[in-house]
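lol ok so funny story. i was supposed to be doing the assay writeup but got distracted and ended up predicting the structure for this chain instead. priorities right. anyway since i did it might as well share w the group, maybe its usefull for someone
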Amino acid sequence: QLVESGGDSVQAGGSLRLSCKVSGYTLSSSRCVGWFRQAPGKEREGVARIATGSGNTYYADSVKGRFTISRDNARNTLYLQMNSLKPEDTAMYYCAAGINLCTGGDPETWGRGTQVTVS
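and the output, tada:
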């Protein structure tokens, strides 16, 4: 089970940190975990991914330099630090996990999402 938290309403230029608590299995067993988002009327898009073993990270061009994904295997938690937020970052943010997620595969498990609104 993946449970997101940390979503909020912020002004443009502000920061938020999202968390995703993993339960029922270890974060490291997923090999790859990441964040996706979906804005109203738009398709869900990948934001960032991280390989839980190597720590290699992958970002969408739209968030490079502003967002940082990290994981704490001991706490079984995934994070997304979001800085310099823009109105176009407004979306529901989802945590996801999948063995092949970092190599182009689809997520196997999804959280329910946490809302981020930037005005």
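The first strand starts at residue 2 and ends at 5. The chain has a mean pLDDT of 94.
back to the writeup now i swear
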